[in-house]
Structures are given as structure tokens and as C-alpha cells.
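Q: What changes when magnesium ion is included in the input?
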Amino acid sequence: MITLKNIEKVYQTKSIETVALHNVNLEIPKGEFVSIMGPSGCGKSTLLNIMGLLDEPTNGLVEIDGTPISNYRDKQLARLRNQKLGFVFQSYHLINDLSVLDNVELPLLYRSGTSASETRRLALTALEKVGLSARTKHFPSQLSGGQRQRVAIARALIGQPEIILADEPTGNLDSVMGEEIMNILLNLNRIDGTTIVMVTHDENMAHKTGRLIRFFDGQQVSDAKTATYNFQQV
Amino acid sequence: MIRHLFKLIWNRKKSNFLLITEIFICFLVLFGVLSLVVYNVRNYTKPLGFEHENVWLLTMRPSTDSSALNHQNLEQVLQRLHAFPEIEHVSLSSSNAPFAFSQMNNNLSYGNVKDLMADFYEVEDDYDEVMQLQVREGRWFAPQDNASHHEPIVINKALQQQLFGEEDALGKVIPVNDSTNYQVVGITDYFRAGSEFAAEGPAFFTRINLQKNPNSFWNEVLIRVKPGTGIDFEEKMVKQLSAIGKDWAMEVSTLEKMRQNKAKLTLVPMIALGLVCAFLILNVALGLFGVLWYNINSRHGEIGLRRALGAASGQIYRQFIGEVLVLATLGLLLGVVFAVQLPLLQVFEIESVVYTIAIVGAVAIIYLLTVICAFYPSRQAAAIHPAVALHEE
Ligand SMILES: Nc1ncnc2c1ncn2[C@@H]1O[C@H](COP(=O)(O)OP(=O)(O)O)[C@@H](O)[C@H]1O
Ligand SMILES: [Mg+2]
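A: The predicted holo structure follows.
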């Protein structure tokens, strides 16, 4: 569970001050599939980075499973990211000089106590889940966009994280490939119970998730359970 | 993690090839220069086998061709030199006095050893006193040698070992030509007179017998003066000697001055080589730094990703330092494979320990260099904010 309390994020560049997030209060309970929508530049990625412990809010409190992490040090944050979180990015962020299998194994490299053979087994299982068992020896440059994103998802789920944060995971893909990725994420949520927070520009995809939060200019403007279409103004 | 680093570097072998080659070449140059330095320094720390302080070298050039007359004058010069209270000992010498820029050698054969090249020095009975030579077996030349059947020689340790091995050298007769045989009467301790930086080679002394050779002439005299004797005496001495050898050119030098000149012959090229080497290393270091800087800057996305997946800042730092160390290790392994051929094949007659020290030294310097070059870029990489690094791509 992630809780954000009164989050404020201000970017200070030279003389310009950008308020990327303003007074954001959110609770993402365990097992939810939440989608976040909003125009470009409204602070969605900033929000995901703060939830993902990659960035610190200027003001406000981030709690993971009820524990505030504001005074955690770099090492502790890294361990939390490694154990509880999985990331999927719009631009995949695969390492081009590593094979598919090696890319998927990366998170376990930063987790002590997993043997090489166990790591390999988990990576193969993760690749099976995304339907890429046949491409383990390939390099990212030899794959299509959809395949690359599936490798990235396998990488996100190998460590069995409680939460997956996906920033426009289908943003670079055509609708067919996007659909495939969406189905993988939906299965992850339904079958494995993984909490997922996904930024998207696609209304259809957003409505397949359980909850839709809309952002505008750094602020939540709506938060609703999609099944009931019960919009509630914030 | 080590396996992961090797995998990364292997998969980037094309772009790493240049870096490894650069490290390899840098190692070879360093190894060469260090071998030379170690060789010279090791020789320098070994004893010379004589004391050159307070020894002067008098060089005379007669003006006439009459050898009988010159010989006569030479005897008078020696008598006069002995009479000076400032002078302790005097000995004629062939032109290869210690630290002189001239050499004399001869081939010796004995038993299975054929044509062993050895330096030889023609000296008088007082030479051991002039140079304060230590004879450790047998004896130095003495008047009793006037009556000896063979020509007496004193050999140094190196000649003894190379010509006779384990055998007792004293009394051994070495045939030289149809009419002459050498007979070993003494063995000196360490003796090397060419240069402080030269290894000890085989050498022997033959005895000058002035009375027996009435038409011969030697134009160098080694003189041991009392400590503290200076330029005043030198002028007085040359003036008085000039009265004997009319129109002879006379020149006095100290062995200390000759030592310094001889040392320059080794030191100047060594320093020049050292400077060239330092310049090369500086260039390699700058190149290495540039490449690492560029590499790390082009890998911001990867750094951000690794941070997101759970790498702490320190792990990023260690990864980049580790990559450079792996690269250096590959270049060095290649270099060491080449370098060990020199001692294995005995290309030059240099002790293996010289090469060993040079290899260890060069490896240490290269590791240090690469770590220094990698230090700053790696620290920069570790300091990159993960959100910013991911945002850039
Ligand atoms: N590192 C940064 N430095 C300065 N401004 C930033 C930085 N990251 C984002 N911003 C600004 O913050 C605002 C929100 O950005 P972002 O969260 O990326 O928006 P979105 O993902 O919704 O398109 C934008 O105005 C953007 O220009
Ligand atoms: Mg964004």
C-alpha cells in the first residue's frame, strides 16, 4: 500500500519555478489497478517517480505499508525499490548490450541470496508469463517494440514486487501491441494480485482498470471507481 | 556481480577493444622503461670493488717518437711522483682506468669454456693500494712475480665463476698464444670498473713490468693522494713533472669527475626515456579519462534504470570502477603474456628478478592509473539522480 499525504513537488531551474504537483493526497490499497490520466506536463511522471521512491517530494509525506520513508537513506530506499516495486517505462529502458535473459535477471543482481541457477529459473518463468520464452538469447535491438515492452514487464515482475508502476507502457506501441501489454498487466493484477499504477493516454485502457484518477496542472481533479462510473470531484 | 561485469564488457568488446589495446601498449612501454630502471638501480646498489675517492688520473702524451727516451722519462716521472709527500700510492695503468671511456678485452678459453670475453687491465704492483682492491683468494702481484715462468694474472669473481665454475681457480694456467700462458695468482672480490650502472662482467688484471720492457710506454698513471689534497698540489705536481717530460702534454682528472661523466651517459638517456614515458602515460590517462567520461555520460539511462531496479548509489560507483578494473585486467593479462617471454627466452642476459620487479611495478602503476582515471567519472555516475537520468531518455 502506498499513501501520499499533501504532496508538493516544485522544480527549481534557474529563475523559473515549476509546480509539478500541488496538494496531492492519494491512497493506493493493495491489489488495486489504478490508471492515471491527464494532459502532457501535468505531473503524472513526477507522481510515479515519487511513488516509486526515485524522487523526493518538496513537501508532504510518502508512506509504504503505513511507514513514512522520509528519513530513509539511499541504501534503504534502494532496497525498498528492489523488493516492493517494479517499473515499466514508455521507452522500455532495456540495456542494449545485454541479452533478453540478462536484462530480465537485472533486479535479482541487486538482491543478495539468490543463486545464479535460481535467478535463471525465475527469469525463464517471468519470460514465459509474457510469452517470450523463445527469445531469451536475443538482444533488444532484434525485438519489436511490443516484445521489448514484454521483456521490460518480465523484468518488473521477476522480483515478485507488490506494486508495479507503469509510465505510459503502451505509449510507443500500436493498438494491437498495446492491447497485448494491457492484457498481461490485467492478468498480473487479477491472477497474482499485484497492485498496478499505470499512466495512460488511452481512455479505453483506463476504463479496463478498477480506478481512474485524472490530473490537471499538478492536481487531482477526479478519482473514481471505473466499474460504477461514480465520478467524485476533488 | 563480477560475472555481470565480464558479460557487459564482453558484449561491448568492439568499443572496449581500443581501451584494452591502449592499456596493453601502455603496459609494454612502462615494462620496458621499468626494466631498464630496475636493472640500473640494482647495479648501482652493488659494490664497485674499489675506492675512487682521492684517486687522480694523470694522462701524458709524449712529444717525440723515441720510445727509449720516452721510457726513460716515464721512469723519472714515476720516481718524482713517489717522492711527493702528498702522494700515497702510484700505479701505471692501461688506458681503461676506472670510469674511462675506453675498454680492452681479450678472449679466454679454459676446459669446456671457449672464447670467454673478459675485460683486462694492465696495472702495476701498487694498483691494489691505489684502488684499495680486496683480494679474497691467493694474492695480489708482488716482486716475486718477476721470476715466474708464466704471466701472472689476478681475476675477478665473475671471471672465476664463468671460466672455472666450481673448480679452484688458483694456480690454473690459461694458454693465450704459442709463447704466452697466463697463471692465476689471485682472485678479487667484486670488481667492475666500467660504470656504476653496469653489471659486473668477467675481468682480469695483468702485471706491468717496467724493467723487463725497456721500450714500452704507458701513458696513464693512477695516483692516490692524501685526503684533502687539492688543486694547489695538482698545479705544483704538473709543473714539476713538465720539467722532466719536455713538451709533454699532461692532464690530470679525478676519478670522481670521471665517475660523474660516466654516470651521465646512463642517467641522461634514462631521464629522457622516463620523461617520454611519463608524457605517454599522461596522454593515455587523459584518453582513458575522456573515454570513461564519455561512456558514463552516454549511459545515463542505464544508470537511472539500475537505480530504479534497486542499485544504491554506491553500487553504481562500484560497478563503473569494477568495469574499468576488468578492462585493465584484460589489457594487463595480454601485456604480461608478452612480458614474461623476455625472462623465459632469456633474450638479454639479465636476471629474471629485474623483469619480475618491472612487471609487478607496471601492473601496479596501470591499476592505479585506471582507478584514478575512473574515480571522478564513476563518482559522477553514482551521484546522478535516478529520476533525472530516466527522464532524459
Ligand atoms: N527534472 C525536472 N526539472 C524541471 N522541471 C521538470 C523536471 N521534470 C519535470 N518537470 C516539469 O514538471 C512538470 C510535470 O512533468 P511530468 O511529471 O513529466 O509531466 P507528465 O508526465 O504528466 O507529462 C512539467 O512542467 C515538466 O516540465
Ligand atoms: Mg510523463
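Observations recorded in class: The two ends of chain B are 26 Å apart (CA to CA).
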